[in-house]
Amino acid sequence: MNFFRPLFISLRLWFTLTGFVLAFVLAYAVPLLFPLVQVAFVVFLFLIGLDGWLLFRTEAGLFARREVPDRLSNGDQNPLTVYLENRYAFRVDTEVIDEIPFQFQRRDVLFRAQLQARETRAIRYELRPTRRGEYSFGAVNVFVLSPLGLLKRRYQFEQGKLVAVYPSFLQMRQYELLAATNRLNEVGVKRIRRLGHSTEFEQVRPYTTGDDVRTVNWKATARRSDPRGASLQINAYQDERSQPVYCLIDKGRVMRSPFEGLTLLDYAINASLVLSNIALLKQDRAGLLTFSDHIGQLLPADRRAGQLLKIMEVLYRQKTRFQETDYESVYATVRTNIRQRSLLLLFTNFETVSGMQRQLPYLRRLAKDHLLLVIFFENTELRALLDQPTPDTEAIYLKTIGEKFAYEKKQIVKELGQYGIQTILTAPENLTANTVNKYLELKARNMI
């Protein structure tokens, strides 16, 4: 049984057997062909035996290894590699079937490769997970055919591997790298000119060409004057640091809507991770609060080493709930635990003005003590509907309803702005860039 378990029959063998059946039928009608068909069939049986001997005479004729990261990035294309090594003394054809996790719902992970004797080959492909959690990989199945191509021998490697899918750390690294090289404009982040200067004093230093003459410190200049001439001294300022930045993530039912495979909650989580990293790079303190019908987890703002890892671990465990969000509990938690004025980025979704107005009293109270930025989403499916032509009365009716909903989104932005509440209305795919843009704009305007 151990011999027959890895043994499989190729299509070439089935087709050849079908041909011999037809040949024997023809030989029944033409007896002169019968001896020739018999000899050919005996030769064919010998070739089958030879093929089996070639494939099974070497105990480990082929080696394969799957290289998969310990963590996958949610919503991104993650590279995977299958390495093949032919240890036979002849050329082989291979069929590689990788048993990927069921969450991907794919049945097309099949690769074919031809390897010469002692050749090594790398097969690369990508997977895009759309849910956080643990993913279980199965075996790497490699079917080997000799040059005769009649039989197949199956090899199995990498029996089971558990991989965790985390929030989009690949996107976070991309933004971090572009920020370090001043190329954030490549992902849609605008260059924002800082207005004025911050009020955090750094030092008194000598004046150099290009400094703002309004920062001249005349008293220090008088004290340091010498007979050869006065040396101007200026006050040097630095960017204000250690400003608390909190991402408030709504996990209620309004965040379960899927767009391109990801829920709104996953878009918010990915954007929160990127923004927290950018805030830490800007020397601000990053924190986190998750909530739905009750408060989830509160991570106080900090910028010490390991804070980003704590944020990632908290975001990894978040799940949407079907209940309506309790904003009263959010306000009470913020008032109790966040005493210093902070930038609060509230990731939520409002579909109607009436839905927003029910929560408006709590939003106004939050905006009274903190700088509140409400981030909610455009309905991209609705936008696609509005761009379509209207060939009949039903299409006109649907488009009219869609325009009403789109107008309500704009009304929400307008009404929140009347109370001094900052807003971002964005498509899910543009969430990260728009959020980082707004954060940099608020810092440039010295609002935080």
UniProtKB/TrEMBL annotation:
Residue ranges of domain DUF58 in the record: 203-373
Record keyword Magnesium present: no
Transmembrane region(s): 12-30, 36-56
Superkingdom to which the source organism belongs: Bacteria
Keywords, ordered alphabetically: Membrane, Transmembrane, Transmembrane helix
InterPro entries: DUF58 (IPR002881), vWFA_dom_sf (IPR036465)
Protein name per UniProt: DUF58 domain-containing protein
Organism: Spirosoma sordidisoli
Organism ancestry: Bacteria, Pseudomonadati, Bacteroidota, Cytophagia, Cytophagales
